[in-house]
Write a sequence for this structure.
């Protein structure tokens, strides 16, 4: 494909030539086209040549990209063909680039295959955060499943007195004062404690 500027001021001698190739891939069972290289011609002489990378689409589709450029800030899909020629002196950038070399019908572009990668940084970050949330949820469900309910069976037993009995014949209140050597002590009787089983 050749893009000519006609009589547009100083650009009338400039021609941008796109070299396209087609290939058949058995895995996709269809033909694909790819932009092989881009040439800049001025007054019928080649000024610069750029090799194109990752610019391809099925032959029945068109290819679309927001920026196709030789600059690194736009992902440099156009690479100078040689370090010795004049290509490194040129900076080429196409904005809202769309191309279709084959199977053009009624002068309109077919459905476009976009250059945007499916796994963009935002999508990858969302996938990582979703994975973390799923792990937290799985851990919480695991803890809930293995949580045992409180069994409401209590077993109460009488505990022995903490103090030895001083008088066997005294039956009174649970607290009975005992006097010996002017020291006051208490004897606890019928003390009970309960066990709770979980």
């Amino acid at each position: 494909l050749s893009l000519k500027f006609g009589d547009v001021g100083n650009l009338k001698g400039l021609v941008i030539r796109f070299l396209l190739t087609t290939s058949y891939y058995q895995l996709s069972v269809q033909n694909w086209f790819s932009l092989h290289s881009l040439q800049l011609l001025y007054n019928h002489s080649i000024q610069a040549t750029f090799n194109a990378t990752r610019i391809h689409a099925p032959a029945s589709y068109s290819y679309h990209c927001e920026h196709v450029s030789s600059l690194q800030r736009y992902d440099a899909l156009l690479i100078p063909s040689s370090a010795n020629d004049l290509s490194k002196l040129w900076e080429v950038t196409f904005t809202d680039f769309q191309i279709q070399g084959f199977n053009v019908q009624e002068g309109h572009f077919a459905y476009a295959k976009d250059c945007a990668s499916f796994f963009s940084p935002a999508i990858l970050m969302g996938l990582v955060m979703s994975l973390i949330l799923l792990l937290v949820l799985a851990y919480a469900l695991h803890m809930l499943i293995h949580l045992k309910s409180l069994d409401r069976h209590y077993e109460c037993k009488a505990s022995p007195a903490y103090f030895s009995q001083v008088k066997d014949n005294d039956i009174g209140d649970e607290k009975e004062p005992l006097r010996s050597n002017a020291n006051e002590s208490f004897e606890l009787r019928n003390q009970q404690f309960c066990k709770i089983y979980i």
Observations:
- Residues 171-176 have pLDDT under 50 and may be disordered.
- Residues 167 and 178 are 9 Å apart (CA to CA).
